[in-house]
Design brief:
Layout lengths: L13 H12 L15 E7 L6 E7 L2 E2 L2 E5 L10 H8 L4 E4 L4 E9 L1 H14 L2 H7 L7 E6 L1
């Protein structure tokens, strides 16, 4: 299975929905970067925690040895993004698309030294996390998603 079965409910944010659609439609050859930053993204597919519907979002690409950091930054908003709760509720029902074909991963939240290591990698991939983290008192959760 190369995807999650069920009803797909597109992201409520137009730019995210449009980017996911363009990325998937092109097999990862279009809409590969975060807006005009030139920095690469991945598409993450998950099952909704409350509805069970299929949800998708575009996240900054932080990859290391086949695993990916998923930073729940939400642009520095005071609350964690909805996708974070979806993945926490269904950590084995997650797919990442980093190129032409989505693949299944299992995700887990990391803490302590492991979080610090992945946070450093994430900031190296997207320095904007520093400014966004400074906008809120909440500490951005970091999840690591890797092959099952």
């Amino acid at each position: 299975m190369a995807s999650i079965e069920g009803t797909y409910v597109p992201n409520t944010q137009d730019w995210v929905r449009d980017q996911v659609e363009a990325y998937e439609r092109s097999g990862g050859t279009e809409a590969r970067t975060f807006r005009d930053s030139g920095l690469p993204i991945i598409v993450v597919t998950m099952r909704g925690a409350k509805t069970g519907h299929v949800r998708k979002t575009a996240l900054m690409r932080t990859e290391h040895e086949g695993s990916y950091a998923l930073v729940a930054g939400a642009g520095g908003a005071p609350n964690n993004p909805g996708w974070y709760y979806n993945i926490i509720a269904n950590p084995s029902e997650v797919f990442i698309q980093d190129g032409p074909t989505p693949f299944r991963v299992t995700a887990r939240e990391v803490t302590g030294d492991e979080r610090a290591l992945w946070w450093t990698r994430a900031v190296a991939a997207f320095p904007g996390y520093i400014e966004r983290q400074a906008k809120t008192s909440r500490v951005f959760p970091v999840l690591v998603a890797g092959p099952q």
